[in-house]
Amino acid sequence: MRSRLAAIVSALTAAPLALALLLLPATLTLSATPAQAQTKVKIMVGGIDKQIYLPAKLAEQLGFYKEQGLDVELYNTTSGQAAATALLAREVAGVVGFYDHTIDLQAKGKFITSVVQFAVAPGETVLVKADEADKYSNPANWKGQALGVTGLGSATDFLTRYLASRAGLKNQDYSLVPVGAGDTFLAAIQQGKIVSGMTTEPTVQRALARGSAKVSIDLRTPETTRAALGGDYPAACLYMDRGYMEANKETAQKLVNALVKTLK
């Protein structure tokens, strides 16, 4: 277990991370809070088994939430819309998801803030059905095809639409199919329900190991992201409703402390 944790921490350290986008007046401290003062906090994670969201679970396993006096309950979802709905309804204190949701929600008049930014690249990969990789690796050839995304309204939805638009396609030129990740994604691409799809680790490595897919577009590093999208794309983060943050500054700060310590 210790060697596995060491490998995880090593992988996180090697990844491009933007730490501490904190918009609170309190000073960041990593000091422990007495264990008896446990504050219950609910956090929704957009795929708790995805590598890009690993810090949320790792902080729990390393005991950093409890060290801050927090009793954090992590909820899993594959729907960005469900996560946003739960956040706005105050069913959860925050969401571990993609930064682009904060922009989308602010455009709708909701004051949503990225509190801790995990990564500055999406960490996603576009996979293409292996026997059709030569044709469909180019987004310009996606016209009339079914493209896999984790869920409608998700970050993979946003990114896939942008890649298609960048290649000159309109929304009506293709269809987006919500296929989730893991087994459901692998089945969809293997059975030909989609010719291409956007997913993340560990699904990517599973598909490559099976030989059922090939990498078409790699958004796992800042360099490859800039080449594909034309600029940077901040991704995984903890985002919260500004109203909740203002009313619960101490709790928000403790979450920041735990997650920044995990990233370090």
Can you offer a commentary on this structure?
This protein has 264 residues and is α/β, with parallel strands linked by helices. The protein folds into 2 domains: 2-120 and 234-263, 3-Layer(aba) Sandwich (D-Maltodextrin-Binding Protein, domain 2); 124-229, Periplasmic binding protein-like II (D-Maltodextrin-Binding Protein, domain 2), CATH 3.40.190.10. It is built from 12 helices and 10 strands. It has a 5-stranded mixed beta sheet, sandwiched between helices. It has a 5-stranded mixed beta sheet with strand order 7-6-8-5-9, sandwiched between helices. The longest helix is centred in the last third of the chain and has 15 residues, at 249-263.
Category by helix and strand content:
alpha/beta
Report the count of strand segments: 10
* H/E topology pattern: HEHHEHEHEEHEHEHEHEHEHH
Q: How are the strands of the largest sheet arranged?
A: 2-1-3-10-4
Distance between the termini: 20 Å
Question: Strand percentage, roughly?
Answer: 15-25%
The CATH H-level homologous superfamily of the largest domain: Periplasmic binding protein-like II
Secondary-structure arrangement, i.e. CATH architecture of the largest domain = 3-Layer(aba) Sandwich
Mean pLDDT, nearest integer? 85
List the uncertain runs: 1-35
Sum up the overall morphology in one term. elongated
Tell me the name of the CATH class of the largest domain: Alpha Beta
Structurally, how many domains make up the residues?
Answer: 2
